Amino acid sequence: MFYIQKTFEISAAHQLFLDYESKCNRLHGHNYTIVIFCKSATLDKNGMVLDFSQIKHKIQDRLDHQFLNEVMPGISTTAENIAQWICNELGDVCYRVSVQESEGNIAIYERG
């Protein structure tokens, strides 16, 4: 099995619509740290699990300096849902995503 890991930071804004009073119900932003884990039993014709620049294009470039509610319409932009959205965007090769929205607050989605 071959494994790759890509880590990057993005700055993005979002707004949550929670069913309880929270400051997160107001528009706000984070400097997110995202870690993406991919694996494959075989390599593609270029000798890669997935090109790191494809991950940058598909995820980092789409999310950095964006309003996440617009990028992910219909999805509550919690760190948990952001992690799942990223994993789904990368397809079956991606099996785990970690999203840190602030120091000590990390959500992890792992494909079951």
General description of the model:
The chain has 112 residues and is α+β, with helices and mostly antiparallel strands. The protein has a 5-stranded mixed β-sheet with strand order 3-1-2-4-5. It starts with a strand and ends with a strand.
- Discrete helix count: 3
How many β-strand runs?
5
Percent strand equals 35-45%
| Structural class estimated from helices and strands | alpha+beta
Q: What profile does the largest beta sheet have?
A: 5 strands, mixed
Task: Determine the N-to-C terminus distance.
Answer: 17 Å
The whole-angstrom Rg is 15 Å
Kindly report the average pLDDT value: 97
What tags apply to this protein structure?
alpha+beta; elongated; 3 helices; about 25% helix; about 110 residues; single chain; five-stranded mixed β-sheet
Summarize the topology.
Elements: E1 2-14, E2 28-40, H1 52-63, E3 66-67, H2 68-71, H3 79-90, E4 94-102, E5 105-110
Parallel strand pairs: 1-3
Antiparallel strand pairs: 1-2, 2-4, 4-5
Quick take:
With 112 residues, the protein is an alpha+beta fold. 25% of the residues lie in helices and 38% in strands.
